């Protein structure tokens, strides 16, 4: 194998014999390179590494689980700081919050950088799906409305992506109903068992039907693949209406439904999951999702009458586990905040 400089590739391709067999990956090859290789035998497909990276091995999964515990602790430190700062009357803004969350993540051993620019959507900004705060767009955060925080870290031991929506004041009934519909949708998919061969589009519909039942909808994908210490958006799998990719054992994926009201507020809740074997019967194999994210899911925004009993039970058990896994990484103030946040619904 020979490595060529970027400026040499086009001429090198044009000099190849017509019998040369080349793998052409459409999304990576520009027009000029495809044209230079057009006289060769072209095999159209996707990168060989794509499928290898998509299915994580047990060592990668074990490290990623630790990364998400470390990341969850960093988020609890951030939430504790945020609420304390607001109580003490400190001026707060989206950008200030974003920088502080990155600072808490930077304290984790193995931190490399944020996995993407944090989405810090306070109030109306939370209704912008891919909002990114900067000096020009920065808004003050007040003790009212709700705050959508979508962020992640890239660590040597894994890549994380977590979204939480939290109240900054007394939530309205509409906010609670939006939030509970989104939470119910996320849990419906997270707790699902599905037949081997199920694709991302089928899973997408399972998640959305909960929101549809409550007259709500969202226009982005339900989930995406995550790389191991690599890209936070990494396929080939994704959960969306257009996905034909089958879910495979070992895949790491997000589940992140939402509900957005322009000019008012946005809600999104996101956990990362690992596809594992559920059961093997005479009808074939059935897969399920192992939850990987450990970060409290706010319960003050829940309209309890909208959540079925099995989801409430899952959430209460989840918070017991969150408290158990994160407490050793926190100081006394942070543990106190977490214990209150993890109280039973």
Briefly summarize what is shown:
With 345 residues, the protein is α+β, with helices and mostly antiparallel strands. It is 35% helix and 21% strand.
Could you explain how this protein is built, in words?
By secondary structure, the chain is an alpha+beta fold. It has 2 domains: 6-45, no CATH class; 52-341, Creatine Amidinohydrolase (Alpha-Beta Complex). Helices cover 35% and strands 21% of the residues. The chain is built from 9 helices and 16 strands. Strands 9-16-15-12 form a 4-stranded antiparallel β-sheet. It has a 3-stranded antiparallel β-sheet with strand order 3-6-7, covered by helices on one side. It starts with 8 loop residues before the first helix and ends with a helix.
Note the topology.
Layout: H1 9-14, E1 21-24, H2 31-36, E2 41-44, H3 48-54, H4 58-87, H5 94-106, E3 111-114, E4 119-122, E5 146-151, E6 153-155, E7 158-159, E8 162-167, H6 173-190, E9 193-195, H7 200-213, E10 223-224, E11 238-239, E12 252-255, E13 258-261, E14 265-268, E15 271-281, E16 284-291, H8 309-326, H9 332-341
Parallel strand pairs: 1-2
Antiparallel strand pairs: 3-6, 4-5, 5-8, 6-7, 9-16, 10-11, 12-15, 13-14, 15-16
């Amino acid at each position: 194998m020979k490595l060529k400089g970027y400026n040499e590739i086009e001429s090198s391709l044009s000099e190849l014999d017509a019998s040369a067999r080349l793998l052409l990956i459409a999304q990576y090859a520009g027009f000029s390179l495809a044209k230079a290789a057009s006289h060769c035998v072209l095999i159209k497909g996707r990168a060989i590494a794509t499928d290898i990276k998509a299915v994580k091995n047990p060592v990668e999964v074990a490290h990623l689980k630790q990364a998400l515990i470390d990341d969850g602790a960093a988020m609890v430190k951030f939430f504790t700081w945020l609420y304390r700062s607001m109580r003490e009357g400190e001026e707060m803004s989206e950008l200030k919050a974003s920088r502080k969350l990155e600072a808490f993540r930077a304290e984790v051993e193995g931190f490399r950088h944020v996995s993407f620019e944090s989405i810090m959507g306070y109030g109306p900004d939370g209704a912008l799906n891919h909002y990114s705060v900067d000096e020009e767009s920065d808004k003050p955060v007040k003790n009212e409305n709700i705050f959508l925080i979508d962020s992640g870290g890239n660590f040597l031991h894994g890549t994380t992506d977590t979204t939480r929506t939290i109240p900054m004041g007394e939530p309205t009934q509409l906010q609670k109903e939006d939030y509970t519909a989104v939470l119910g949708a996320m849990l419906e998919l997270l707790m699902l068992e599905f037949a081997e061969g199920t694709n991302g589009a089928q899973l997408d519909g399972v998640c959305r039907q909960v929101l549809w039942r409550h007259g709500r909808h969202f226009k982005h994908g339900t989930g995406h693949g995550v790389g191991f210490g690599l890209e936070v958006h990494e396929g080939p799998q994704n959960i969306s209406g257009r996905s034909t990719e089958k879910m495979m054992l070992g895949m790491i994926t997000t589940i992140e439904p939402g509900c957005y009201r322009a000019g008012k507020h946005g809600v999104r809740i996101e956990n990362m999951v690992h596809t594992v074997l559920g059961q093997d019967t005479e009808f074939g194999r059935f897969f399920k999702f192992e939850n990987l994210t450990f970060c409290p899911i706010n319960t003050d925004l829940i309209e309890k009458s909208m959540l079925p009993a099995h989801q409430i039970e899952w959430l209460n058990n989840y918070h017991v586990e969150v408290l158990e896994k994160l407490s050793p990484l926190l100081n006394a103030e942070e543990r106190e905040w977490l214990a209150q946040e993890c109280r039973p619904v």
